[in-house]
Amino acid sequence: MAVAAAAVTAVGVIAGEQRRGPRASGAGFPPPAHSRSVVDPSVTFDELPLIASLRAAVAAVGYQRATPIQAQAIPPALAGRDVLGCAQTGTGKTAAFALPILQHIDRVAGRGPRLRALVVTPTRELAAQIGQSLAVYGRDLTFWHTVVFGGVHERPQIAELERGVDVLVATPGRLLDLLERGFVRLDDVEVFVLDEADRMLDMGFIHDVRRITRALPPARQTLFFSATMPVEIRELADGLLHDPVYVAVTPPATAADHIEQRIYFTEKARKPGLLVDLLKSTDAQRTLVFSRTKHGANRVVKYLERDGIHANAIHGNKSQAARVRALEGFRRGEFPVLVATDIAARGLDVSGITHVINYDLPNEPETYVHRIGRTARAGASGVALSLCDPEEREHLAGIERLLGRRLERSASEPVGSRKPLRRDAQTIHLASAAREPPPSSTVLRPLDASFPAPVRDRRGGPRTRPSRHAALR
Questions:
Q1: Half-sphere exposure of 102 (CA within 13 A, CB side)
Q2: Which of 334, 349, 361, 386 is in Cβ range 3.0-4.6 Å of 392 for a Cys bridge?
Q3: Which whole-number Å values give the CA distances from 360 to 262, 296, 301, 388, 413, in the listed order?
Q4: Residues 206, 289, 371, CA angle at the centre, nearest 5°?
Q5: How far apart are CA 175 and CA 184, in angstroms?
Q6: What do you get for the CA distance between the two ends of the chain, in Å?
Q7: How far is CA 325 from CA 329, 344, 472, in A?
Q8: Domains of the chain: residue spans and CATH
Q9: What is the 8-class DSSP label of residue 391?
Q10: How far apart are CA 141 and CA 53, in angstroms?
Q11: What are the two backbone dihedrals, phi and then psi, of residue 304, each rounded to the nearest 5 degrees?
Q12: How far apart are CA 151 and CA 275, in angstroms?
């Protein structure tokens, strides 16, 4: 669930921002739940077994009815059961584990802080947003929490840990580093949350996660959330969970029905011009553009700016302060287009995104579902457009196999003449002179125009995953 609250500032995140307030009196956990949670999808938060202070905090940010993942996961989590949740991004799973954690801390916490709940998540942005959610929902509770992640100076984070916390939100790399150096002990953890487990696998963090879990006490509650359930994730879940309640609000890796999806076939060199045409010809109000690489994201922003479209980029090469400024500027509408890489956008939670454009098609079909899930949230409609060059046809085939249907092809592709993009002293031509249309014309490419078959990688063998030391893309 998105939290309508003030933004987490870069200073607050780096310092490990905490919240403290008067302790609310509340009941303990209800009796154990059944092994499967079957609830009315229209259940309200008042109908869930939450203490009054949590219900009031949820109501204060404008939420009355629980999302399906919240309605199914919160009761067994409050009952102390392990939970295996499968839900797409934007379904509200942060509140599905944050509210039970806060109620548990409120029930068992003593006068001094003790690390009782640990949340491990793959990206800095997602960690910051979870910390913000804990602060908003726990505004009337007495508890200490902090957020730690890499890419910023560790000293303020260590200082907060030494003061003591009840809840710790962390990314795997920084947590493992602090754990090995003795700044964190996990002996007293009672609730462990692993969020976005499939992205942990994509980013090469699974081995780090296994090392972290070995430091946890065996007697604990585990809440395990993943948008997709590949074999490796199921194996990881089997080793962490004990008699879990399985909740799933939609089939794994399926796209929302109210997202309009279209494919535009084009040559790679013409993608910048096509992107500009789409942004200018559609009713896009807030657009998220996905690039496969950090440098590619920068190039896209530079081209859009030269064509009069205000845009910004977010990726792992930018400082945390710059990323926070870019996100907040996008939220406030200071610029209508945000260009992001998959890993940097994993924790991005911005309401009102009308369009998602895949400038580069992802090579993993599940990632496509994650990308377009940034639009059409909370029952709204959205548009997802994808630019496909000849080398990406194989990626498109994988996406359509996963979705089980053929995506709509655009009837025509506007490939109007574009000015060359000048960078430094060089001129980058978007197409060879032989293929460039006359300057005054706009060519419509027929639907039946075909490309040569993509060349397959003849080297064979699985691709290696990035190590945790690699910069976030």
A1: 35
A2: 361
A3: 14, 9, 14, 7, 16
A4: 40
A5: 8
A6: 25
A7: 6, 14, 17
A8: 10-248 (3.40.50.300), 259-445 (3.40.50.300)
A9: G
A10: 8
A11: -60, -45
A12: 32
CA–CA dist 346, 469 (Å, integer):
18
Instruction: Give the sign of the dihedral formed by CA 55, CA 57, CA 63, CA 68.
Output: negative
Q: What is the rounded CA–CA span in Å between residue 83 and residue 97?
A: 9
Torsion angle, CA of 63/66/69/70, rounded to 10 degrees? 80
Spatial distance between the Cα atoms of 155 and 151, rounded to a whole number of angstroms: 12
Q: Which helix (H) or strand (E) holds 393?
A: helix 393-403
pLDDT tens digits along 54-93: 999 999 998 889 989 999 999 999 999 999 998 766 678 8
Q: How far is CA 112 from CA 140, 144, 188, 409, 431, in A?
A: 17, 9, 13, 60, 66
Q: Which two tokens stand for residue 14?
A: 């780096």
Q: Are 212 and 172 in contact (CB under 8 A)?
A: yes
**What's the confidence (pLDDT) of residue 281?**
85
Helices (H) and strands (E) in the chain, counts: 16, 18
Phi/psi for 168 (5° steps) reads -120, 130
Instruction: Quote the pTM value.
Output: 0.62
Strand partners, 223: 83, 193
SS3 sequence, 321-367? HHHHHHHHHHHHCCCCEEEECHHHHCCCCCCCCCEEEECCCCCCHHH
Task: Give the separation between CA 315 and CA 298, rounded to whole angstroms.
Answer: 9
190 pLDDT higher than 70:
yes
* The one-letter amino acid at 118: L
CA distance 204 to 235: 16
* Residue range 319-370, pLDDT digits in tens: 778 888 898 899 899 999 999 988 766 667 788 899 999 999 998 887 888 8
CA dist 432 and 402 (Å) reads: 36
